[in-house]
Every structure is written in C-alpha cells, then in structure tokens.
Design goal:
By secondary structure, the protein is of the alpha+beta class. The chain has helices spanning 2-66, 70-73, 77-96, 146-158, 199-207, 243-253, and strands spanning 101-108, 118-122, 131-132, 162-163, 167-169, 174-185, 188-198, 210-211, 215-216, 219-220, 226-228. Strands 1, 2, 3, 4, 5, 6 and 7 form a seven-stranded antiparallel beta sheet that branches. It has a two-stranded antiparallel sheet with strand order 8-9. A hairpin with an 8-residue loop joins strand 2 (118-122) and strand 3 (131-132). The longest helix has 65 residues, at 2-66. It is elongated.
Length: 259
C-alpha cells in the first residue's frame, strides 16, 4: 500500500509538472505566433499608410514649388487662380494613384486668399471618377469649429503632417480617415494638402487577421481608444474592455518592436 501510495504521489507530481511545463510552452509558442502575425500585419498596414503619406507629401512639395512668388500669391487673386489651375490635373493624378482615396484637397490660408480658394474633389466610391466641387467656405466657420474645419486648423496648429481620427462622411455613408500636410513658405502658413481615405480599406485588412480559432486584431489610437473592433464601439477605452485586454495591450506597447 505504501509503495502504491508513493507511486501515485510521484505520478501526480510528475504529471502536474509536465502539464504546467506543457501549458507554459504552449502559451509561449502561441505568443510567438501571435506576435509574428501581428508584426507581419502591422508591416502590411504600414506599407499602405506609407504610400498614402508619400502621395500627399509629394503633392505638398509640388504645391509649394508651384508658388514661385509668395508675395504675389498673398495679394493677387488672379495669380492664386493660375497656380490652382496648374495644380488641378497633378492633384487628380496623385489621387487616382492612391489606394482608397475618396477625397483630395489643396486649401490656402484664408487670411490672405478667398475663403473658397483652392481645390476640392470627391467621389462616392473607388470605381467612380472624381468630381470637382466648390471648396468649403472658411468665412462661414470660426477657426475653433473643429467639427467643420478641424481638418484644416488641427494640422496647421500641429505644424506637422497629421493623421486625423476616422469619421463618418454622412453624405456617402462611409467612414474616412484623413492625412493632411500643412505647407509653409519662409515659415509662414500657406495652407494644407490632404486626402480622405476609405477607412474600410483598413478595416478589411484588420478583419483578415486571424490567429487560431478565436484570435483577431483591432486598432487603437494613441490614447488607447478603439478605432476599429469587431465587437466594441468606436471610441471605447481599452481599459473598459477588461483587465486582460489592457494588460495585453500595455505589454505589446512596451515592446520595442511595437513602438
């Protein structure tokens, strides 16, 4: 009886140790697979975002170089029109070559140009051609009205290229995300160049990410708020989704490869 009892105790101890090690190894392997999938997916998204940035950045450079006489640009409406007309076909070509672009615009500082000056073009889907429309009238809105003109003043106030948070374009019922570049000449604000991108393109890429049977991906902003999640609403704080979600996110953000 003693031999049998000792044998059972030994088996239970060895079995427990084996199970614990197996679970540890399994979790470690699962984590490696998830991190590898995450890293690969991030690189894919980064490539898409970089192409958008490259299009807008280059168009901003072209816009700046097209204004050869800045003093005249600030005082001569005819010269502003001349510059705008020369930029129109170039801007459309850039937008046509940018995946997911539904809107593009070049807007000038309303302090010294007409409130509707510049370029604004949009389309309802990628299959349709761009339609040139009258740009937003800056004189109708106060600069602090971020709901209507934040797309202009936020990047200008940031003084740097800015990715805007996704928003719903109620006119075509499509969520968009905007990349806007402020342009300067001799340190003075000239205006902005930007594109609105179909956020569905990013959502589609996120939806295709799957690890095992239940693993999935979601997108958060710099404030750890949900930008896209298959279940949670937009704007939900990750901390409200459960301790596990926040812990996992904090661990990922603290890793150098995810900075």
């Amino acid at each position: 009886a003693l031999v049998v009892f000792c044998s059972l105790i030994s088996i239970m101890i060895c079995g427990g140790i084996s199970i614990a090690k197996s679970v540890k190894v399994s979790n470690r392997d699962a984590e490696k697979i998830m991190r590898a999938e995450c890293k690969g997916s991030v690189q894919d998204l980064d490539l898409m975002m970089e192409k958008i940035e490259q299009s807008v950045d280059t168009l901003a450079q072209v816009t700046t170089s097209s204004i050869e006489d800045f003093s005249r640009f600030k005082t001569d409406a005819a010269y502003v029109t001349e510059v705008t007309d020369s930029l129109a076909p170039i801007a459309m070509e850039f937008a046509d070559q940018t995946e997911g672009a539904l809107t593009y615009y070049i807007r000038y500082n309303p302090e010294f140009t007409e409130p509707t000056s510049g370029i604004f073009a949009t389309k309802n889907s990628e299959e349709e051609p761009f339609q040139m429309l009258t740009p937003t009238d800056f004189s109708v809105y106060d600069p602090t009205d971020l709901e209507h003109v934040g797309w202009y003043y936020i990047p200008v106030n940031n003084g740097a290229p800015t990715w805007m948070d996704p928003y719903l374009n109620s006119n075509i019922n499509v969520y968009m995300i905007s990349y806007v570049v402020p342009i300067y000449i001799n340190g003075e604000s000239v205006g902005i160049v930007g594109m609105d991108i179909d956020f569905g393109k990013i959502q589609d890429k996120i939806d295709k990410i799957q690890v095992y049977d239940s693993g999935y991906a979601f997108v958060v902003n710099a404030n750890n708020q949900i930008m896209y999640h298959k279940d949670a609403e937009y704007g939900t704080a990750v901390s409200e989704m459960g301790k596990g979600s926040q812990k996992t996110l904090d661990q990922a953000l603290n890793k150098e490869e995810y900075e």
